[in-house]
TrEMBL record:
Part of the ABC transporter complex HmuTUV involved in hemin import. Responsible for energy coupling to the transport system. InterPro entries: AAA+_ATPase, ABC_transporter-like_ATP-bd, ABC_transporter-like_CS, P-loop_NTPase. It comes from the Bacteria. This is Iron complex transport system ATP-binding protein. Transmembrane segments: none annotated. Residues 5-239 form the ABC transporter domain. Pfam families: ABC_tran. The keyword DNA-binding does not apply. One of its GO terms (molecular function) is ATP hydrolysis activity. Keywords: ATP-binding, Cell membrane, Membrane, Nucleotide-binding, Translocase, Transport.
Length: 260
């Protein structure tokens, strides 16, 4: 099976600072990657590079073809990017926001079809947003708006979802709901690369983890190999303890410890 995404020797820099050097990893269809790291370690920069919005040294191949060789519309059918800052400067209903995910699939002068609307509304329903479909995006709470952005990414039906903190601002139930929806997407063959600040989002969800240390170093691999106390303590420069809750591992910061 050929890889959906191949990252070869990618270097991430911002403002003259090297964030990540020689990054190499491969994503197959159905895999769920969680990206972890401190504030400013380069997680959003990585997603921007993988989305083709940031030119970086190295090579990224999407479905066997260099990222830069994809025409923008075709690339957007393959790859959805939920940005961390997903605000909209003009009035837009929640339904219209979800429908933006269909734009790469429409011709220049096409309107969305009934099937497009049905698909968008189905994604809103999965995220508990159908009752708000007619509301202006600007009137939503932060968590509701975040879920509307995720619904738009799902409506795009891309093979690869790049999700920058899709669970931020979501309450506990909606976090779990979103994780369940994303797990369904992965089971249907889509690949996910999701940024989070909670290593526990990996538990029972992620298949792989990418740790970005923000100083050039990184670690990537299956959850069982990469997600452990030692790596997380080094990543966050704070002692992290692994515990068990009803047989499930969980990671917690040690209390009362000075920060490094
Ligand atoms: N245009 C820019 N000029 C200079 N520095 C920048 C620029 N854009 C981003 N940076 C810096 O690059 C670093 C990485 O930013 P990035 O947004 O990728 O971090 P992140 O890991 O996503 O952080 P967070 O967890 O806070 O969202 C940060 O220190 C940021 O201040």
């Amino acid at each position: 099976m050929s890889a959906l995404l191949q990252v070869h020797d990618l270097a991430l820099r911002q403002g003259g600072r090297l964030l990540c050097a020689d990054l190499r990893f491969t994503v197959q269809a159905g895999q769920r990657w969680l990206v972890l790291g401190e504030n400013g370690s380069g997680k959003s920069t990585l997603l921007a590079a993988l989305a083709g919005w940031l030119a970086c040294p190295g090579r990224v191949e999407l479905a066997g073809r260099a990222l830069g060789d994809w025409p923008a519309r075709e690339r957007a059918r393959q790859l959805a990017w939920l940005n961390q800052h997903d605000d909209c400067p003009f009035p837009l209903s929640v339904r219209e926001k979800a429908l933006t995910g269909r734009h790469p699939h429409l011709g220049r002068w096409d309107w969305e079809s009934a099937a497009d609307v049905a698909l968008a509304e189905a994604q809103l329903a999965r995220l508990d947003l159908l009752d708000l479909a007619g509301r202006d995006l600007a009137t939503l709470s932060g968590g509701e708006r975040r879920r509307a952005g995720l619904a738009a990414s799902l409506t795009q039906q891309a093979a690869l979802l790049l999700l920058d903190e899709p669970l931020s601002q979501l309450d506990l139930r909606h976090q779990q709901q979103a994780l369940d929806v994303l797990a369904e997407e992965a089971a249907a063959g889509r690949a996910l690369i999701m940024v989070s600040h909670d290593p526990n989002h990996a538990i029972g969800f992620a298949s792989h983890v990418l740790l970005l240390y923000g100083d050039g170093r990184w670690q990537a691999g299956p959850v069982d190999e990469v997600l452990n106390e030692a790596n997380l303590s080094a990543l966050y420069r704070h002692p992290v303890q692994r515990g068990l809750i009803t047989g499930q591992p969980c990671f917690l910061p040690q209390r009362g410890q000075p920060c490094a």
